[in-house]
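All the exercises in this workshop are built on plain-text protein records. There is nothing in a record beyond a sequence line and a structure line. A learned vocabulary of local backbone shapes supplies the integers on the structure line. The question running through the whole workshop is how a given chain folds. Here is such a record, shown just as it appears in the course material:

***
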Amino acid sequence: MMFPQQDAENTEIDPIQFFTEDITFLLEDENLVREWIMKIINEEGQHLVALTFVFCSDAYLHNINIEYLDHDTLTDIITFPYQEPPNIEGDIFISIDRIKDNANSFETTFENELRRVIIHGVYHLSGYGDKSEEEAKIMRQKENHALEQWNISITGSNQ
């Protein structure tokens, strides 16, 4: 049985943490986002060990992309898994700059695009890929389902 992580003062540490690097950003509805992520993880039959989200700039994520993945491109998300499914443990880096640009390009809100990318990382840690056309299709379906679940949790209905 997993016991919640505790800090030096023996207080429980949430297994889903949010941080920023080199930007000023505050995630709205942090506790609702945690509950939503947990709901999706549970639906997938996975077990949450620990998730760390790091919100950062394009430059910060670009450097990680070059250093760790040898990709000299901008990206909206990089996921580092530390366990295999069904155990979910990893770091998820998200570029807030990319989220803003993508929201504009895809004609959606910043908040919707951010939630899509957050849950995209969770699905990667759950074993879903997006390299092939078929994988990308399944990933998009999963993301859309998760966003519907978000809307239900916020409004109490799926309208």
In short: The radius of gyration is 16 Å.
